[in-house]
Amino acid sequence: MGDLGARPAAAGPDPDPRHSAEDLRIPATSDPTGITRGARFTFRFDGDTVTAHPGETIAAALLAAGYRELRRTRIADRPRGLFCAIGTCFDCLVSIDGGGPVRACVTPVRPDIEVEVSRGD
Amino acid sequence: MATEAATAQPIDADVVVIGAGPAGVPAAVAAARAGATVIVIDAADRPGGQYHRQLPHDFEVEDAGALHHGWRDATAGFDELVANDRIRHIAGTRVWLAERSPDRVTLHTTGAHRGTVRAQALILATGAAERALPFPGWDLPGVLTVGAAQALVKGQGVRPGHRVVVAGTGPLLLASASTLVRAGTHVLEVLDANGPGTWRAAGPRVLAPGKAVEAAGYLRDLARSRTPYRPAQAIIAATGDGRVESVTIAEVDRDWHVVDGTQRHLDVDAVCVAYGFSPNVGIAAALGCDLTPGGGPAVVVDRLQRTTVPRVFAAGEITGVAGADVAALEGAVAGAAAADACGHDVDRALVRRQVRRREKAQRFAAALQRATPIRHGWQSWLTDDTIVCRCEEVELATVRSAIAGAGVRDVRSLKMTTRCGMGWCQAAICGPNVVDLLTVATGAVPEDANRLAARSIAEPVALSEL
Known about the structure:
The structure holds two protein chains of two kinds.
Chain A: E1 35-36, E2 41-45, E3 48-52, H1 58-64, E4 71-72, E5 79-80, E6 93-96, E7 101-103, E8 114-119
Parallel strand pairs in A: 2-8, 4-8
Antiparallel strand pairs in A: 2-3, 4-5, 6-7, 6-8
Chain B: H1 4-7, E1 11-18, H2 24-33, E2 38-41, E3 60-61, H3 71-83, E4 87-90, E5 93-101, E6 104-111, E7 115-124, E8 128-130, E9 143-145, H4 146-156, E10 164-169, H5 171-182, E11 187-192, H6 196-201, H7 209-224, E12 229-231, E13 233-239, E14 246-251, E15 264-267, E16 270-275, E17 277-279, H8 282-286, E18 312-314, H9 324-341, H10 348-371, E19 387-389, E20 394-395, H11 396-404, H12 411-418, H13 431-442
Parallel strand pairs in B: 1-2, 1-7, 2-4, 7-18, 9-16, 10-11, 10-16, 11-12
Antiparallel strand pairs in B: 5-6, 6-7, 8-17, 13-14, 14-15, 19-20
Helix pairs in contact in B: 2-3, 2-9, 4-5, 5-7, 9-10, 11-13
């Protein structure tokens, strides 16, 4: 693994050191838009518990929490993640509650869903 | 099997508009003001398109326009979508099939509204998709399009990474870098593959007063955050273990070939790339509208935004990428012309003025296009194992051997031989690049360059909806 650079110290336990502990949500203090998010809830991603807010897509909630890999490709098992974020490229396919692949970038996150990396699609 | 979709009553209107972005909203408003009943179908939950993308209803915001340009005019249009009782906005819905008879257009929709919409006239305002050029490692998680970064920041309040490089060319490069900086993203550098010489060659129109002020504002945002803007440099590779961790940057010459000895590396956790736009012509092509020749096809329209198919109009980026200001003017003209085609009275003097303003604005857009060309040198950044088609995992070597070995000269044969463009995205990402690879390798634009755009089904649908 390459140089991780100057990452902020983890605020709590983080099972994967590649998941930076600093949330990528625009902080309320420095946000020019002045966002107030709704009450947070949790869902699961490959067994991990992840926090989300109402109105977020699955992809945005996972990115904010530091997850980048959303699927593995069919032929060479390559890692893929969010690329176009508007539903065009289909590279952010995930499985919800064991169902068929959906685009994480256009699918709203809901409390308690089980999201898994999509494999072989 | 009787599904809800099959039994839903068709909805009728004089005019149906596909897309509620910078062209679609003014189109709907203009048609309704002329007396037409209008249905607007849009994939997003809120109007604005990709350019004026809004935060979800669930977020409370103090200043929704803080990260937007032209927000006041845009929101006036959004308000009228709601206030004008001749307009019905069908949100969260995509068109997957469009059919035409001599006197009517029928659209089949999926998403929030599953059913059928019928109208006398159709306005296509489907916008453009970002173009993304391949380079080694461009499929690693963490490499995003700048449009993706804009969608995340403007539409979700999430930044793409902690250490970000923005690279590419085109009008969105500076604008999106400025948006990222204003959202508190650490943007390490902004790289423009085109150099200052290209801007000078584009002529004085790119330096039109209003536009120069806009560009100066972006550069000021970058200066404030001490983000260097480097012309004639490009990201030529990305590496990392399971996600992008480092990029290779190099100086490039006028044709975008790497200048030897200038390579350097930068540690990053996200990369945002922008290489212009490709119009979303799928539905237009399926309806039989003529497209301009070449790899970046656009719908051919006349001064009144009429396509070559009767009762079908087009406005905005789908007719050629020219930006939100031109899109709004084209939308207004298309809306009036469509209402006129349905027998409503339109203010002809107003339409004439809008046509003149549009033509002036288009000259700026054409100059901007000349200032931000895609040069073929990008192909020299690729290695044999660089992915060309992300969905089907087709590597460059496979494409090259199909052309050199099997003598493939056209898009259709290349698709059949290599599976390029046959996956989930249906060539939305690789299409223009495949056309470019064929063009350089064979010395001629392939005869069927527009073929990858002309799919009959414009959106993947569940079997239960058929």
